[in-house]
């Protein structure tokens, strides 16, 4: 029996997850949601440019901002 590339991709697929980490309890995520909601309400485009030293904190803030903006 010959196994094609499709079978290999199917077997490897569970190893790669396409969803974002759960930042819901992260304080930077919560701040991002607040800033995003304020900017959405006031029709502004990312008025708060917050920068964090840790990459994970920055990702959490940006994820929260996008959720609050939408």
What fraction of the residues are assigned to beta strands by DSSP? under 5%
* Secondary-structure element order, N to C: HHH
- Helices, by number, come to 3
Radius of gyration: 18 Å
Model regions low in confidence, pLDDT < 50 over at least 5 residues = none
Overall 3D geometry?
globular
Average predicted local confidence, pLDDT: 83
Structural class by sheet pairing and helices: mainly alpha
Helix fraction, binned, reads 40-55%
**Strand tally:** 0
Q: How far apart lie the N and C ends?
A: 50 Å
Compact summary:
The chain has helices at 5-12, 27-41, 55-69. With 70 residues, it is mainly alpha-helical.
Description:
This protein is mainly α and 70 residues long. The protein has a domain at 24-70. The protein has 3 helices and no strands. It has helices at residues 5-12, 27-41, 55-69. Helix 2 (27-41) runs parallel beside helix 3. The longest helix is centred in the middle third of the chain and has 15 residues, at 27-41. The radius of gyration is 18 Å and the shape is globular. The model has no long low-confidence stretch (mean pLDDT 83).
Key descriptive features of the protein:
single chain
Give the SSE map.
Layout: H1 5-12, H2 27-41, H3 55-69
